[in-house]
Amino acid sequence: MADLFLKFTGGKCAGKTATFIPTASLVEEVRFYVSAGKEALEKLGVIVDELEISTASKDEIESKLQKMIISISLVEILSFYFKS
Fold first, then answer.
1. Is there a contact between 25 and 31 (Cβ–Cβ < 8 Å)?
2. Are 67 and 16 within 8 A, CB to CB?
3. Least enclosed by CB within 10 Å: which of 4, 37, 75, 76?
4. Cα–Cα distance between 1 and 57 in angstroms, integer?
């Protein structure tokens, strides 16, 4: 997962924020990969903002996802601009 994030950001992921949603793993017996994925992002310098949607309020979910959408849109716009 971290390598995909690195590719998506063009290698410029330090200081960027990623919303990490571990909810689906809660029912799994083996969950080491969740913390491993989170740690891998943190090693890249990514600020990991965890969102546990099974316990979060509607406002918290909307707020975090809206920030994520804005961040992705900015990355896409800047990537396009600098590739031109």
1. yes
2. no
3. 4
4. 27
